[in-house]
Design brief:
Number of helices: 5
Distance between the termini: 21 Å
Structural class: alpha+beta
Radius of gyration: 15 Å
Helix content: 25-40%
């Protein structure tokens, strides 16, 4: 399977909506909007493009040319030297190393092109796949925020990870 990262395009909205319109995928995104429609995807894509290189960098993850998810980081603000990484992919693609590959490409890009010292990310404790991605990137768990996230009438622990430039491997 060929994996590519490309700028989001409105033409990707239908495929992205199909991938994200799954209760399990939405459960882990931090944006519990469900159902997730093509119109929602279009609005998100337009927002990503408007924010591109201003407050965030976003890429669509393609598998064999088909949109299957999103990977992004928020740009540093007010002199900070850190970015926050995020990602999601459709459930049928979980467990195949795709999120790790996509996140690694974006982390490499961030450390190569930005004057930053740190990349951080967080995941719900129940989202084992996501925090395993962070560990594969060389991130260390810096903390657990107990019952920090409230979604659908339930509290979740939020795990916080980070990696410093001097710890990160570009290999």
């Amino acid at each position: 399977m060929e994996i590519q990262l490309v700028l989001p395009e409105e033409s990707q909205a239908e495929d992205l909506a199909l991938q994200r319109n799954d209760r399990e995928v939405v459960r882990y995104t931090g944006d519990p909007k469900y159902p997730y429609t093509k119109e929602d995807a279009l609005a998100d894509i337009r927002s990503f493009l408007e924010e591109e290189n201003k407050s965030r960098v976003t890429r669509t993850i393609l598998a064999d040319g088909r949109p299957i998810g999103i990977v992004y980081f928020y740009l540093p603000w007010r002199g900070q030297k850190s970015v926050e990484l995020g990602y999601w992919i459709g459930k049928q693609y979980w467990g195949q190393g795709i999120s790790t590959y996509a996140a690694k490409q974006l982390c490499d890009f961030a450390f190569r092109t930005l004057d930053i010292n740190r990349i951080c990310a967080s995941a719900l404790e129940v989202n084992v796949g996501s925090w395993r991605v962070m560990e594969k990137l060389g991130m260390r768990r810096e903390g657990t925020f107990i019952k920090a996230i409230y979604q659908n009438g339930e509290f979740f622990n939020d795990l916080y990870y980070a990696v410093l430039r001097e710890e990160y491997s570009m290999e």
